[in-house]
Amino acid sequence: MELRTLRYFVAVAEELHFGRAATRLHMTQPPLSRAIKQLETDVGAALLRRSAAGVTLTPAGAVLLDEARALLDQADRARARVAAAAGDASLTVGILGDSTDPAVKRLAAAHRRRHPGVEVRIRETDLTDPTCGLRAGLVDVALTRGPFDETGLAVCELQADPVGAVLRADDPLARHDSLSLADLAGRRWFQFPEGTDPLWQAYWNGGEPREGPVVRAVQECLQAVLWNGTVGLTPLGHDRPMGLTVVPLVDMAPSRVVLVWNKADTNPVLRSFVRIATAVYRG
């Protein structure tokens, strides 16, 4: 069994859908299906049950998933240790500034346990660049949120967070249990500077053209809400300053937490980082 084929199998087993797995692997579905069928022939057992509803694991598939994860993890660790011995074990990670994602702490601890010899450099960026300096060559990988232009990039979704409207505590809408985007029509929203990725700007404006103050950082957005009553948006479950409240938005698409890196990058330290992050976020 080749490691590449095992990576294909793990993707299908985790996504339980050939289409999503193919997207995750940046390939088309037919060669992925052929690779999995060949793997089943090689091991002499059916690994997946296929139906119109999707894919489920057979008992043999569940065993192979555990074994494949362990083998891939060992291979990634071996590559990373070789890189460390060669004096090339470092990784620059871009993250959005003022991020309060609690999983980042778990990721840092898990990566430090697995690769204590790898130096991780963190580069915080403001809200104007959702790729956190990746396109400019300033980082190896970005732990960020979508959506943005993914041309030439590999993207791995880690989780999807529901979103709420950030309002002053004395705002009449703050008393509601939930809101729709229509409830916020006519209100001033925050804007990003000219030149910001249009997909990123459109998402945080609820898909509509808006008017409001230009901000570059999370704290600037929150201060605009506090001082001027501007509408802000935030993933639910994040801490907010006193005087502000968050009301869930029922018709806002979830905010996707993603890892993103250049497709052409084959750095083994990066590959291991992606696997560790996936395991941490997906439990």
Q: Can you give a write-up of this model?
A:
The chain has 283 residues and is of the alpha+beta class. The protein is 38% helix and 21% strand. The protein has eight helices and ten strands. Strands 4-3-5-10-6 form a five-stranded mixed β-sheet, with helices on one face. It has a three-stranded antiparallel β-sheet with strand order 8-7-9, with helices on one face. Strands 1-2 form a two-stranded antiparallel ribbon. A hairpin with a 2-residue loop joins strand 1 and strand 2. Helix 1 crosses helix 2, helix 1 crosses helix 3 and helix 5 packs across helix 8. The chain is globular, with a radius of gyration of 21 Å. The model has no long low-confidence stretch (mean pLDDT 89).
Secondary-structure topology with pairs:
Blueprint lengths: L2 H13 L2 H8 L3 H15 L4 E4 L2 E4 L1 H27 L4 E7 L6 H12 L4 E7 L15 E5 L7 E9 L1 E6 L29 H7 L13 H11 L3 E4 L8 E5 L6 E8 L5 H15 L1
Parallel strand pairs: 3-4, 3-5
Antiparallel strand pairs: 1-2, 5-10, 6-10, 7-8, 7-9
C-alpha-based Rg, rounded: 21 Å
- Tell me the series of helices and strands, N- to C-terminal: HHHEEHEHEEEEHHEEEH
- The count of DSSP E runs of length 2 or more, i.e. the number of strands, is 10
Spatial separation of the terminal alpha carbons:
26 Å
Low-confidence stretches: none
Strand % is 15-25%
Strand order of the largest sheet: 4-3-5-10-6
Overall outline: globular
Fraction of helical residues = 25-40%
Q: What's the helix count?
A: 8
SSE class: alpha+beta
Mean pLDDT: 89
**What's the story with the biggest beta sheet?**
5 strands, mixed
